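Late entry, written up from scratch paper. The run itself happened at the end of the previous shift, but nothing got recorded in the book at the time, so transcribing now.
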Amino acid sequence: MKKTIFALSLVSSMLVFSQEKTNSTPKEKQIEGVVITKTKKAVEQKADRTIFDFSEQPQLNNGNVLEGIKKLPGLVSTDIAGMMYQGKMLEVYLNGRPLNITSNELNSFLEGMPANSVERIEVITQPGAEFPATSGGAIMNIITNKNANKYLTATYSGNYSFTNYDKFRSRTTNSVNLNARNKYFGWQLNVGQNYRESMLNGQQDELLTSHTDRYARGYFAKSGLTFDLGQDRLLLNYDIYHNNNDNYTLSDGHGDLPFKRNPKDLREAFYTSSDVAHTNTLRQEAVVTYQKRFADKSQKLDFQFGYTKSDSKFSQDNYFQDGTFVNYPNEPLDSPTNGLKDILNNKSVMNIANLKVDYAQPIKLLDGGKVSFGGLYERQDYDTKSFGLTNLEYQRQTASTYLEFQAKLKKFDFTLGSRAENYDISGVTRYFDKDAKLVEANLIPFNKFKFFPNASVQYNMMNQVYIAANYNRKISLPSISALNPNNVTFSGPSTEVNGNPNLQPTIFDNYELKISAFDYAFIGYSVSSASNQVAQIIRKDGRKLYNEQVNISNMKIHNFNVGLPVPFMIFSKPMSEIMKFDFNPDKINFMYLYAGYQKHEIDNLNNKGFWIFNIMTQILLPKDIKMTANYSYLTPKAGYFYFTAEKPFNNSLDITLTKKFMNNRLTLSVFANDIFNGQMMQVRSNPPSGTPVMISSKYDTRNFGLSINYKIPTRNKLAKEDPNILNQTKKEDNGGVMQQAQ
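Output as recorded:
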């Protein structure tokens, strides 16, 4: 019986999810009568990463990027503590370059990106020495790249969805992707827009109840040029993202308000307030990459210069604030902010410039090997202002170099490397003390030189079945949104939101053991040990709620996870027929099961672990209609940093129906997300000091809509894509016009 169960598990792992993408075009090569078909897979498990294909999975690309990310098995995304994947804190990259934003700013940025503009997402769980040590626990690399073709090609993607809670709200996205190549150069232009109406209901203990109407408008343009210089290549990229959002909030609160317009005389009151918050962000990025290639294709030398500028403005206006004082019911509540514009007026500017060099070549080491080395210099400047006062001037210079060896010995693959990084972090902060005097102080400097080793060993038991052990040490620098001393979220009389410019970097030691079979079935255990982990603290003091960022001296995150594909044919066909492999893997019904257990260990805090479950099912219906159902659930009553989940973060069922027309050029999908309206966040804070707080938030996650993807016919149906030569990872060469370098 045990042998039968093992065989079924192994075969199911082998058969499913070697799925080709539904409307990917096969590339065939005839060799002595044998046809080899290269297919793209929906999910791939590799030794150091998991790759999720977005480009033609309607259940992932029918909304914005944040909605698609939240459907990935093993990923937890919350407003209170950012993103984690299989127990590791994620550093988010866009086309191989860090975004340098987290928390609510990251969520807003990802909400402003249409999911159909994403080609794939790579979650790199074991970043090697070639990646900056600042990658922390893991990297999520969002890749929007597409290849340039010999002739002009164009693809239109559109999406419309709606919600209907207290009122009807609409969401639209549109984008066009153009690709072409002539004998001199290749070029790409991807432009798009989105408009999003949404709702947010919030509760902060008994101090604040709020209802927010959100209006988000976003625009983006991504452009690229590539020049072939013999066998070398020059790539030029320029990207721009603009978001303009308004949040209209009606709130009821309980707090201490100025009595007779005296800000120093605060007395208990109940109030009703109407406010509007404006957020305007502009992010621009330019990258120049020169790729030197040699006769030996595995030898390469890359030079890259990049510059990023991000401007952000946040302001809040108060329309009215009415209420009564508890002990003075006949005294009118005449707040100093009543009917005023710009009760908050904050700005920030970030500039990042870097220069990067990478070299790799094969070497004679054991049964074959490779050596990689390179360097990076980066300068970051970040300034924030509040009502014209520059209250933070932050500078960081990072100089680093790395050396990494890879080798094979029979069935073993080895990787050994180290990265050396020197940090010079300094700055000045300014603030008004209790006596309204301006105080200027230097930030706690971080001037250190550190080594970050990494090592891995993989034993290949058989073709596509291996067991791997990994270790790496990484560092995570505090994000600019955590350092920002200004409030860039809704502010009421009962709440105070502050960044912490004196946060210290986090050091991670990451360990992982994983068994993987046929790219899809896997079982793994990992632990991340962190020193000075940055975490959010929410506490109550009297009738005031404080939202702060702190360092946790020591913390461990344990994670166990398993994934298994189950083709339904194992219940209807004999094993002998299944083993023949005489079927199209894209034409079968299957279920993919994922389960993960995660536990956060923090000193003086008794956190319980939680389970994450994800079930994705593909059913083939008549008329070539494909139904995809995705269910996610995260068990409640568990500890998540300094919070306990009273209700599950994830509890949603999404269904998508897809059909292709016009020889697969037109893809039409209809979808329903969070059908049972179970997606919400309700947590109880567990602060190291102060009074715990109950917090809940509910977005209008239940929505319905349709998406369309149309590939406009090319001038020549035989037009071929350029070969991929842009260095994407240390093990693979992928690429195109859009920048993907690390």
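The chain has a mean pLDDT of 82.
(Scratch paper discarded after transcription.)
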